[in-house]
Design goal:
The chain is mainly beta and 136 residues long. Helices cover 5% and strands 40% of the residues. The mean pLDDT is 96.
Length: 136
């Protein structure tokens, strides 16, 4: 399983992740747009044990996801880069890591799009798209 190194914008926090099949999951939900300041976020679903912080410590805050369950957001307190989120509805061992912060991620294919219902009207569909999230 390949390793990818990540870092926040200011460099105070660094981490590595193992991703079985490298690819971006584009999330078009309104929360991701607000958090990123962009039209979507790029993510990968991984086991929490595949994330290894190698420098610094993340801060965390919570918000309520569309599921009604908490979402824990892990970020750098200095530059506010969001490295990963834990959507508790997915269970205790699954996280969404921000792939755009990983070295080599520019070569990842787009694997899937979620919250297609919130995609901006001028954006093309680049991969299989779900109106919200894929069925369990």
């Amino acid at each position: 399983m390949p390793d990818f190194n990540g870092r926040c914008h200011c460099g105070q926090i660094e981490w590595s992740v193992q991703i079985d099949k490298p690819g971006h999951i584009f999330c078009h939900c309104d929360a991701c747009k607000v958090l990123s300041g962009g039209e979507f976020t790029q993510n990968a679903l991984i086991p929490k044990s595949n994330l290894h912080v190698t420098k610094g410590d993340f801060k965390c805050y919570d918000y309520q996801g569309d599921s009604g369950h908490p979402v824990h957001c892990y970020y750098c307190a200095n530059c506010t880069s969001h490295a990963y989120h834990h959507q508790t509805v997915m269970g205790p061992d699954t996280i969404l890591v921000r792939t755009s912060l990983l070295e080599g991620s520019k070569d990842f294919p787009v694997a899937l799009e979620v919250y297609g219902k919130n995609r901006l009207t001028w954006q093309p569909e680049l991969a299989e798209t779900f109106e919200t999230v894929p069925p369990s």
